């Protein structure tokens, strides 16, 4: 008989309830309902709002001033208004950086558009800065568009410290001279009318200003503030509503800046969440019942969110004393009958590797979620990098085949966990999901998932094991063995991380060891035969093929769309599975003159005088493609700790095309 503590129906219903609570928002994104129509003239300046296709907004402040919360609220209001959005948090490297420092800039970038948005975009159109130092940070990073609108807190021009006042005057003068549209805002003065500590109120005042500038509905904005502070005292909620209204009123009376972004063409109900929340909800939807973790940036918020909802469906988040314990706890829970998950980032993955080898050797299903960050060592804890592909595939000692897949959007974060659990239990393998910091905090609306009972793990099999069965009865064709679950009659056996025979007896004979290696590898091959290559984006042949993986997909495809509009024959291919890879990649590459990977990890620049074809280090995917298919695959990317932008990819692609033209003309 088969028994299980939770039925599919119970988990399905509970999971559906969890989807509507604790920070994940749902709404009916019907453009006919959300499109606000013509905006009435400003009471002070007159004239309708300018209709635009998209804008990128940045809100930057010192840490603790609420710029990130302001950006998150703005994005949620825009999404509920029917716009496509994408956000990325601006996070300083230190937990408490010095106030008024270039390195301490903290905030949020919000891309709002009249169409679906899949990436962070290029440079900002409008920036609100709480002091001139955080503004300098964004200017020096070249993140602001020439001629952009800049709104800045003006309290610093009369600061008691003459050095601060002088520096403020110098920076604002230089900003104006550089051609930016600078507006000085009395944020501190205005906020003091409503709260004693203006530093704790500026973010909602600024949110009101932005709602006015972008013609966002007053009712939606007030509802969002209510939701943002729902767990606070009513007095705090009311104070923040006052600040919101005050910011809107101030902007309407003092700023002649009005835009309106029409609703994106979407007709089905949408949800808005960040990548880590989507991963957590994917764990719930997959039917996994145990998550073991140890806190690590930028993965921790996935476990925190999961812990806030998991107990509602009868499941457990275990915070272990370290990364190794988290991995072994999850492996033990999986061994008991149902696949479990452990969530980490790059340094944690390194620590888990020996334990993952145990899961491979014992053939225990396990899902590992790795939210990548900059490395090596402590590296860039709050910054973006795709640096863990090779360690995910080859990190364990010995031959330890694992399935490695990468998520490419917020929506994909949700569905990939469901897929990973099914693969892990079908093939009794470790499945590693690679996300990264670009997706972890980014927000994006997508169609609300319609729950399907087939997503959920089946009940644990407790029926008797046949008398003649063996714990490792490897199938000669697929390498898969039916897993014995503790408690099954006739299923008792000894399990270790040592080499073993079909009866799970420790064995060091060469033939037996080779049989185990063969069957563990054969499972990877069996899984590979089920894969289908994603379609090529653009044309099936041309001058240049860009190949990517993970979070770079949106930026790559936006770049390809722009290049094709310019008449260039450029296409892209995005890989979901990195180990193993689907068949047919070599056939796709044959139809293009040049192939280049686009990755957010290190590769040696060809222009470096010390670099030559014999010593150049290629980016991760480029190395894999070159070694497997012996094709001259070039690579472009960087490890600057920032998401790749469409404009930079366009420039890299054009440089590659020009390089080809120079070679044809006899150039260098």
Structure description:
With 668 residues, the protein is of the alpha/beta class. The chain has a seven-stranded mixed beta sheet with strand order 13-12-14-15-17-16-22, with helices on both faces. It has a six-stranded mixed beta sheet with strand order 5-6-4-7-8-9, sandwiched between helices. The chain has a four-stranded parallel beta sheet with strand order 21-20-23-24, with helices on both faces. α7 packs across α9, α12 (323-335) runs parallel beside α13 and α18 (553-565) packs across α21. The radius of gyration is 27 Å and the shape is globular. It starts with a strand and ends with a helix. Residues 1-22 and 29-46 have low confidence and may be disordered.
Characterize the largest beta sheet: strand count, sense, and whether it forms a barrel. Answer: 7 strands, mixed
- Radius of gyration, Cα only, in angstroms? 27 Å
Q: Enumerate how many helices there are, as a single number.
A: 21
End-to-end separation = 72 Å
Q: Could you name the ranges where pLDDT drops below 50 across 5 or more consecutive residues? A: 1-22, 29-46
Overall pLDDT metric: 91
Which structural class do you get from the secondary structure elements? Answer: alpha/beta
State the strand order across the main sheet.
Answer: 13-12-14-15-17-16-22
Overall spatial form: globular
Q: In percent, how helical is the residue content?
A: 25-40%
How much of the sequence lies in strands comes to 15-25%
The number of strands is 24
């Amino acid at each position: 008989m088969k028994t299980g503590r939770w039925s599919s129906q119970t988990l399905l219903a509970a999971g559906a309830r969890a989807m509507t609570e604790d920070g994940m928002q749902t709404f009916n994104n019907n453009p006919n309902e959300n499109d606000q129509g013509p905006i009435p003239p400003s009471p002070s300046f007159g004239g309708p709002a300018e209709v635009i296709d998209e804008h990128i907004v940045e809100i930057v402040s010192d840490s603790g001033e609420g710029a990130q919360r302001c950006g998150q609220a703005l994005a949620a209001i825009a999404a509920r208004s029917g716009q496509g959005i994408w956000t990325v948090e601006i996070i300083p490297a230190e937990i408490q950086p010095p106030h008024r420092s270039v390195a301490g800039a903290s905030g949020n970038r919000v891309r709002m558009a009249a169409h679906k948005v899949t990436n962070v975009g290029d440079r900002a159109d409008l920036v609100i800065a709480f002091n001139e130092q955080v503004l300098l940070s964004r200017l020096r990073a070249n993140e602001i568009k020439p001629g952009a609108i800049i709104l800045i807190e003006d309290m610093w021009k009369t600061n008691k410290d003459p050095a601060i006042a002088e520096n403020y005057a110098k920076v604002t003068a230089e900003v104006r001279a550089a051609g930016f549209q600078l507006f000085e805002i009395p944020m501190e003065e205005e906020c003091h009318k409503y709260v004693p500590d203006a530093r704790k109120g500026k973010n909602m005042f600024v949110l009101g200003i932005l709602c006015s500038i972008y013609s966002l509905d007053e009712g939606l904005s007030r509802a969002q503030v209510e939701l943002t502070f729902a767990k606070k005292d009513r007095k705090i909620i009311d104070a923040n509503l006052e600040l919101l209204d005050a910011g809107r009123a101030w902007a309407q009376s003092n700023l002649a800046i009005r835009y309106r972004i029409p609703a994106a063409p979407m007709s089905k109900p949408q949800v808005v969440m960040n990548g880590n929340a989507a991963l957590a909800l994917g764990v719930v939807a997959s039917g996994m019942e145990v998550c073991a973790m140890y806190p690590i940036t930028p993965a921790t918020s996935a476990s925190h969110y999961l812990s806030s909802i998991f107990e509602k469906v009868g499941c457990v988040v275990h915070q272990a004393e370290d990364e190794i314990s988290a991995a072994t706890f999850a492996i033990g829970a999986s061994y008991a009958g149902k696949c479990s998950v452990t969530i980490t980032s790059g340094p944690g993955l390194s620590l888990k590797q020996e334990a993952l080898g145990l899961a491979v050797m014992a053939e225990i299903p396990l899902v590992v979620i790795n939210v990548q960050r900059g490395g090596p060592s402590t590296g860039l804890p709050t910054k973006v990098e795709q640096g863990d592909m090779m360690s995910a595939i080859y990190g364990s000692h010995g031959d330890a085949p694992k399935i490695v897949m990468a998520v490419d959007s917020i929506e994909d974060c949700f569905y990939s966990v469901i897929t990973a659990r099914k693969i892990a239990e079908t093939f009794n393998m470790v499945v590693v999901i690679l996300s990264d910091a670009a997706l972890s905090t980014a927000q994006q609306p997508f169609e609300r998932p319609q729950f399907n009972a087939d997503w959920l793990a089946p009940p644990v099999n407790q029926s008797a094991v046949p008398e003649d069965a063996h714990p490792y009865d490897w199938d000669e064709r697929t390498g898969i063995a039916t897993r014995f679950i503790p408690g099954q009659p006739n299923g008792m056996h000894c399990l270790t991380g040592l080499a073993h025979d079909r009866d799970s007896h420790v064995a060091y004979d060469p033939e037996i060891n080779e049989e185990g290696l063969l069957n563990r590898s054969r499972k990877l091959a069996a899984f590979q035969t089920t894969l289908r290559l994603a379609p090529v984006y653009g044309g099936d042949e041309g001058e240049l093929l860009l190949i990517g993986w993970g979070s770079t997909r949106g930026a790559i495809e936006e770049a390809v769309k722009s290049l094709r509009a310019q008449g260039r024959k450029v296409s892209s291919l995005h890989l979901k599975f990195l180990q193993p890879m689907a068949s047919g990649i070599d056939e796709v590459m044959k139809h293009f003159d040049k192939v280049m990977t686009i990755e957010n990890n290190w590769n040696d620049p060809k222009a470096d005088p010390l670099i030559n074809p014999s010593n150049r280090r290629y980016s991760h995917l480029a190395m894999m493609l070159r070694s497997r298919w012996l094709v001259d695959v070039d690579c472009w990317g960087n490890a600057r700790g920032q998401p790749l932008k469409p404009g930079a990819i366009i420039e890299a692609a054009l440089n590659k095309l020009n390089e080809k033209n120079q070679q044809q003309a006899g150039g260098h």
